[in-house]
Amino acid sequence: GGAAGGGPPPPPLPQSHYQGDACALTTSVIASTVAEALVEITEAVAGGADIVELRVDFIVDLDARRDLPAMLAACAVPCIVTHRPTWEGGQYGGEEEGRLEALWIAVEAGAAYVDCELIAAERFFA
């Protein structure tokens, strides 16, 4: 199939960024340090990811106020920030208040999306 106007399809792009009906490729960055995450972010974008999921629950000693803005600034494509708790199969075992605060910091720092479990959404928006 051609483009919507009947002409030939547009040339392929390194990242689709939601062009037409293209599927967006999402790549998860799973690292134990911010330095490792920054390298993986660069590799994911260079490799063609349209969206990068930052699995910050894997980062040991995450300082959300310092680290989330740095990681989001380094990402040239939209980011999903995921801070998955252990009760949902993730790595974060701390207090729920701290986890939700980190997600809000991600929103404030420019994350395109945050992954918040439905069961936690009421507290997230409170």
UniProtKB/TrEMBL annotation:
GO terms for biological process: chorismate biosynthetic process; shikimate metabolic process. It holds the Pfam family DHquinase_I. InterPro entries: Aldolase_TIM, DHquinase_I, Shikimate_DH_fam. It comes from the Eukaryota. GO terms for molecular function: 3-dehydroquinate dehydratase activity; shikimate 3-dehydrogenase (NADP+) activity. This is 3-dehydroquinate dehydratase. It comes from Mantoniella antarctica.
